[in-house]
Design goal:
Elements lengths: L1 H12 L4 E8 L13 E7 L7 E7 L2 E8 L1 H10 L4 H8 L1 E5 L3 H11 L2 H27 L3 H22 L8 H8 L1 H12 L4 H15 L4 H4 L1 H7 L8 H5 L11 H10 L3 E6 L9 E6 L1
Parallel strand pairs: 2-4
Antiparallel strand pairs: 1-2, 1-5, 3-4, 6-7
């Protein structure tokens, strides 16, 4: 296996666009960490080369998956937690090539889990929670109980990830194993939803009520990045201006929904703006409360 890795990394080293190469061995026969392959190679390369590509091949009876990704996409995946195996790969993988110590620096940053990364992840997870929680409430009102159950289960999952991040830890694949020790109350909600003898509607309503009081109280904390942007200038912000902010790029599509909730909770204010007194439409802008 080591000789195989060396052969492959020697070829990749010749490509100047390749920044780093990471190898992850399959930890067990039935593990999904490497998607079932014997070896996973994560190749980080400059954007526009052949990133966002995957290659499957066999060499010396070893089944290999090779994934190419650029640094921007990698950063986004880490923040959103969409590919949870990625955290494992970066923290546990073997670094085969690392120009300018890119991967070493990223690994150190993830282990340190600095406040700016935590704040970004909190805002992302809260936006996802808020969407699924609101959809569940709507489905209950329309008596679409299976959809309501599915949505509140997803919302509860994001809630669990929020409390894990608040504890200064990266959410792993086994979120409920993590949260059981960090916050037994959240784990209890999960048990009530999935194992209670109450009717499906009663279980969903119970968790919705608990989330209303416990998670909504975290809105100001979880939206700290957005609120900081709003207070960074005296002039009110248009939605377009906010969506162009680098700090808010990871939640730009959820900003209308988040802003609406922040206004209802009196955490932000709407300001009516017009440049033409005869205009029939008035623009809504946002500022700190």
């Amino acid at each position: 296996m080591n000789a195989l890795k060396e052969q492959r990394v020697d070829r990749l080293r010749e490509d100047e666009a390749v920044i780093s190469v990471l190898a992850v061995d399959n930890p067990s026969l039935f593990s999904a960490v490497t998607d079932g392959f014997d070896l996973l190679l994560l190749v980080i390369a400059d954007k526009g080369v052949q990133t966002d590509q995957q290659y499957h091949y066999i060499k010396d009876n070893c089944r290999i998956q090779e994934r190419w990704i650029d640094p921007n996409a990698l950063h986004s995946f880490i923040l959103h937690g969409e590919h949870r195996n990625l955290i494992y790969w970066i923290l546990k993988g073997e670094i085969l090539l690392d120009r300018n110590t890119y991967l070493e620096g990223l690994r150190h940053r993830m282990l340190e889990f600095p406040s700016d990364m935590r704040e970004q992840k909190l805002m992302i997870e809260f936006s996802k929670f808020l969407r699924k929680y609101s959809e569940s409430k709507e489905h209950v009102l329309e008596d679409h109980l299976l959809d309501a159950y599915n949505n509140i289960l997803e919302a509860l999952h994001h809630y669990a990830r929020i409390v894990i991040i608040e504890a200064g830890i990266h959410p792993e694949i086994t979120v409920w194993k993590q949260v059981r020790t960090i916050n037994p109350g959240v784990y209890k909600l999960y048990e009530e939803l999935t194992q209670s003898n109450e009717t499906l509607k009663q279980r969903v309503q119970l968790v919705l009520l608990a989330c209303e009081f416990s998670v909504m109280s975290k809105m100001e904390r979880c939206c700290k990045v957005l609120l900081s942007v709003l207070t960074s200038r005296e002039e009110a912000w248009s939605l377009h201006d906010l969506q162009q902010c680098d700090e808010l790029s990871e939640v730009r599509f959820e900003l209308p929904f988040i802003l609406n909730k922040l206004v209802k909770k009196s955490l932000t204010k709407e300001v009516i703006h017009t440049q033409d007194e005869e205009a029939s439409e008035l623009e809504v802008r946002y500022t700190a409360r």
